[in-house]
Write a structure and sequence with these properties.
Layout: E1 3-16, E2 19-25, E3 37-41, E4 49-53, E5 64-69, H1 74-80, E6 87-94, E7 105-111, H2 116-128, E8 133-140, H3 149-158, E9 162-168, E10 178-179, H4 184-190, E11 198-203, H5 205-218, E12 226-230
Parallel strand pairs: 7-8, 7-11, 8-9, 9-10, 11-12
Antiparallel strand pairs: 1-2, 1-6, 2-5, 3-4, 3-6
């Protein structure tokens, strides 16, 4: 069951040149599962609302966080003006993009701001020491578009069973990555035991559809082993 509550902005964090995280202080916050999303409403205006993934983990108890790529939309402009102490309305939890904790091997394929629910899930797995072997392929145009790099670097140190492989269209000196796009060859190279894994896909709808087709048609992964989320938070 979802709940609608008024929340106070605790902190605003710039993640890169056009992505910000908004941490909310919520009293008597409803429980949620890593990977779920919420509805954010601004100024009680029906036009100023968006569904956005929760980027914090249930293990991070002092706040709940959502993260958004900021565009020229009215919603993004209002959101970008928020500061600590402001109040907004949120409703959550929604969604079924949650981790199967019984799966021993997991693979995430993500692009751009679609990383937000995956950050939540990986942080949860690391904090809980779940034991699952996790590989993330994270695609972006360039290194400046990468979100949560420091967070994932810290998670990999804390949870050695997590590995992140970056896939960029534009290379960057000193940044370890595969140049190009996620395709069947990249998946086979980075995830040699791909047939043993459960896949979670999150990103722009066209990317999710393309990745789903690659996994099912080219790599012959069973449809039941592919979980998708067409990211809504643009």
């Amino acid at each position: 069951m979802t709940a609608e509550i008024t929340a106070r902005v605790k902190e605003v964090i710039s993640r890169n040149y056009n992505v910000k995280s908004f941490r909310l202080e919520i009293n008597n916050a409803p429980d949620f599962q890593a990977g779920q999303f919420l509805l954010v409403k601004l100024n009680n205006d029906p036009a100023l609302k968006r569904y956005l993934s929760i980027s914090s983990s249930p293990t991070e108890k002092c706040y709940i966080e959502f993260t958004k790529k900021l565009t020229e939309s009215d919603f993004s402009k209002k959101l970008n003006n928020l500061k600590a102490g402001d109040q907004i309305t949120v409703q959550y939890p929604f969604g079924k993009f949650v981790l199967d904790e019984s799966a021993p091997k997991i693979a995430f394929l993500s692009g751009g701001i679609g990383i937000t629910p995956i950050r939540s899930i990986c942080k949860y797995a690391a904090d809980k020491k779940l034991g699952a072997d996790i590989i993330l392929l994270y695609a972006n145009r360039s290194v400046k578009d990468v979100v949560f790099k420091d967070d994932f670097d810290a998670m990999m140190k804390d949870y050695p069973r997590l590995r992140v492989a970056h896939v960029l269209c534009e290379t960057e000196p000193g940044f370890q990555c595969t140049v190009g796009r996620i395709n069947a060859g990249v998946i086979k190279h980075q995830i040699p035991d791909y047939r043993e894994r459960k896949f979670y896909l999150c990103g722009p709808p066209q990317m999710v559809e393309a990745m789903q087709q690659i996994l099912i048609r080219e790599l012959e992964i069973a449809p039941g082993a592919v979980v998708t989320e067409n990211f809504q938070g643009y």
